[in-house]
Every structure is written in C-alpha cells, then in structure tokens.
Specification:
Blueprint (H helix, E strand, L loop, with lengths): L1 E5 L4 H11 L5 E6 L7 E6 L4 E6 L17 E7 L3 H12 L3 E5 L4
Antiparallel strand pairs: 1-5, 1-6, 2-3, 3-4, 4-5
Length: 106
C-alpha cells in the first residue's frame, strides 16, 4: 500500500510538510537512493514505524508507479503496518494536500 501525494514542491519541501503535518513524532533523514532507483529519498522513523518518501517519476524507474504518475511523490511503510499511512492520509488531507491510498507495493 502506498500513500500518493500531489505536491508541486521539491523532495525536501515535501518532507518538511510531512514532518510537520503528518509525522511530527518521527525522526527523519535524507538518504541516498542507490537501492531505491537512484536519487535521494527521506526516511521517517521512530521505535514503532519506518516510512519512506520517494519521488514518483521516470527518473527513478525502480520506484516509479506509472499508473499514478499524476502524483509526484509517495510514501510507503517499511515497518509498522499500513495504519500509519491511513493516519497520514487523514492529516494531509485536512491540511489541504491532494493525496490518496493506492494498492501498489514497492
């Protein structure tokens, strides 16, 4: 399950928004995405969960979800289950961010 985000922002700006609106109790770090299609991505984490924010574009083919190309980013949970994504969806939609949950797994 992925949380797709339609944002006209840079990766860092998207991470800042997610950190302040949806994941305020999570640490975050920027990572080199050699194993995730190249480029950079953000990892948000705490003791219970780990969520990755990646770019959804053709430049990152290993993580690109073409069917969701209208969304510039997406998040997925590597630890902690999908409930965190549902919570993020609610928080981000309340803040006016266009986003949706999709079934595509990375």
């Amino acid at each position: 399950m992925n949380l797709y985000l339609k944002l006209d922002q840079t990766l860092e700006e998207a991470a800042n928004l997610i950190a302040s609106v949806a994941l305020p109790r999570h640490e975050r770090e920027i990572r080199d995405g050699l194993n995730l299609g190249g480029g950079e991505y953000f990892k948000f984490f705490n003791a219970d969960s780990e969520i990755l924010l990646v770019c959804n574009d053709a430049e990152h083919m290993e993580v690109f979800v073409e069917e969701q190309a209208k969304f510039s980013f997406y998040c997925y949970a590597r630890k902690g289950g999908h409930a965190i994504l549902d919570s993020m969806l609610t928080s981000l939609q309340s803040a006016g961010v266009e986003c949706e949950i999709g079934e595509e797994d990375v």
